[in-house]
Amino acid sequence: METKVATVKMRDITKTFGSVIANDKVWLDIYKGEILALLGENGSGKTTLMNMLSGIYYPDEGDIFINDQKVVIRSPKDAFDHGIGMIHQHFKLVDVLTAAENITLGLDGKLDLKAAAKKIRQICDSYGFEVDPNQKVYDMSVSQKQTVEIVKVLFRGADILILDEPTAVLTPQETDKLFAVLRNMRNDGKAIVIITHKMHEVEDLSDRVAILRHGQFVGDMPTKDTNAQEMTNMMVGHAVTLNIARPEPVNPRPRIEVKDLTVRSIDGILKLQDVSFTAMSGEILGIAGISGSGQKELLEAIAGLQPVEKGSVSYIEDDGTRDELLGKDPLDIAEKGITLSFVPEDRLGMGLVGGMDLSDNMMLRSFRKGRSVFTDRKSPATLARRVVKELEVKTPGIETPVRKLSGGNVQKVLVGREIASAPTVLLTAYAVRGLDINSSHTIYDLINQQKQKGVAVIYVGEDLDVLLELCDRILVLCAGKVSGIVPGRGAKKRDVGMMMTRLGGNANE
Ligand SMILES: Nc1ncnc2c1ncn2[C@@H]1O[C@H](COP(=O)(O)OP(=O)(O)OP(=O)(O)O)[C@@H](O)[C@H]1O
Ligand SMILES: [Mg+2]
Fold first, then answer.
1. Is residue 375's pLDDT more than 60?
2. pLDDT digit string (tens) for 224-268?
3. For ligand 1, is residue 394 a contact (CB within 6 Å)?
4. Which amino acid residue places its CA nearest to atom 19 of ligand 1?
């Protein structure tokens, strides 16, 4: 509605970090009773802009108005005083405290725990959250922690809610739940800003989109008046194709043969049961499944990082020589050219050291490759430069500590590092988590290049549409068992989805 008055107005906001202009004279309006999707490529300045509303950063220039009053937000507390709360990508909860204790932590005055518990229950009831106030944070799933973060912000009276890539770590089912809650809050008159790279979420959830490109505001519009292609073009600044290539496999040969693999967790729970399949060279084998269906255990078992109860994993050379991998040292497995890149929920915990620069992080991977690497700093630096160039990593240089890069750029460094190590088998899980569309396509291209070089790729992904477009075959896991293996060409999304939740899915297959 044209008559709506913005509750937040950001005007000419500029923020620089050294030579990097993260935000350049940005204008942005946020309305009550509306869900705004803030879009832009990795490093385009989305998190920085929202951090200035939530009191993490202070603008170099520009003004912020809330309900037409000019405000100064110098701390998260200032932000709360203006009704602004932000859910960050990395949660800030105290593990040993309960939900209720975290929600009320740091509040002034004497706290009546009973009254607090009652208020928490009211918030949960009115928006549809499920929180056990007495549960300790260390016992919670990622989704439960996120719920606590949101309730914490609402408890403090926030009516402007900012969520930075909240679904990056959620399963599709958890995402649906979150979106239902966000819609309830919108209908209750709250202003919601969500940062996400997933276009179908933008189309599903948001009422309006605002787009940043290289730190500048490039436009906003009602979601119903635009589409994924147009939004992507605006983010990138030129037309991009959204199709994923699927070249025919060239001369595929069995490379990894997994037989009757059974894995139990330390507490005795079956994680994989009698899993058997063959991964071919020059082929992308996709692994589909609801998160936690055994994907992680499967890749880790192949890489030698997971104790196995029974079964075998054979590595087959071009000449047919077989080598049993189970029981081998992970470093010896890596020497064969089997690389694992697993992008976990917490991207900085994934084998990169935040305080170290790009070049040193390259060395963490390649230290076994050459004996002289410790004295010869040239090769990691060369590698770092190549990754930066090929993946268009936005960084002032290879001497920049990784933690200063934007989320998506951190990830390009990780995936690029694994691919650059010239693998024969590429095990990759959630490679595009948190990546913008353009970068995701860069990763798909890189994986396709590996396939065409004859690498056997095992690709664990969360996005069924992508699995169906990219992979030659798709193995569907359901609760640790192989529900079926289908050819990627011609497979139906519904059928694969069904196989994910029910062994064999379609019974007459
Ligand atoms: N604390 C910091 N120190 C130095 N540079 C920073 C800092 N925070 C952000 N930057 C830089 O500012 C730019 C914008 O980063 P920002 O995190 O806002 O991007 P983003 O749009 O949120 O990206 P992503 O989608 O990858 O999360 C990037 O070039 C980033 O490297
Ligand atoms: Mg960000």
1. no
2. 999 999 999 999 998 888 889 999 998 899 999 999 999 998 888
3. yes
4. 43
> Quick check: 17 and 29 in contact, CB under 8 A?
no
Is the CB of 39 within 6 Å of ligand 1?
A: no
Higher pLDDT, 90 or 148: 148
Q: Mapped to the 3 state alphabet, what secondary structure does 262-318 carry? A: EEECCCCCEEEEEEEEEEECCEEEEEECCCCCCHHHHHHHHCCCCCCCEEEEEEECC
Ligand 2 (ion): which residues have CB within 5 A? 47, 407
Q: Which residue has the tokens 């004996």?
A: 371
Rounded to the nearest angstrom, the distance between the alpha carbon of 133 and the centre of ligand 1 is 34
Kindly report the average pLDDT of the chain as a whole number.
87
C-beta of 404 in contact with ligand 1 (< 6 A): yes
- Write the DSSP symbol of residue 349: G
pLDDT tens-digit profile of 40-81?
A: 998 899 999 999 999 999 999 999 999 999 999 999 999 999
Task: State how far the Cα of 250 lies from the Cα of 257, in Å rounded to an integer.
Answer: 19
pLDDT of residue 177 exceeding 70, the answer is yes
3-class DSSP state of 496 = helix
Ligand nearest to the CA of 196: 1
Confidence at residue 109, expressed as pLDDT on a 0 to 100 scale: 64
Tokens at 102, concatenated:
């975290």
The Cα–Cα gap between 431 and 344 comes to: 9
Residue 432 Cα to ligand 2 midpoint, Å, equals: 14
Report the candidate in 62, 291, 89 with the shortest Cα–Cα distance to residue 195.
Answer: 89
> Hey, whose CA ends up nearest to atom 27 of ligand 1?
407
Distances, alpha carbon 367 to alpha carbons 140, 335, 379, 380, 419, in Å? 36, 11, 10, 9, 15
Ligand closest to the CA atom of residue 39: 1
Q: Which residues of 134-149 are buried (b: 16+ CB within 10 A; e: fewer)?
A: eeebeebebbbbbbbb
Report the alpha-carbon angle 195-201-206, nearest 5: 70
Question: Each residue of 298-333: pLDDT tens digit?
Answer: 999 999 988 999 999 999 999 999 999 999 988 888
Domains of the chain: 6-236 (3.40.50.300), 251-337+424-430+458-509 (3.40.50.300)
Q: Indicate whether residue 17 lines ligand 1 (CB < 6 A).
A: yes
Q: Which residue puts its alpha carbon closest to atom 29 of ligand 1?
A: 43
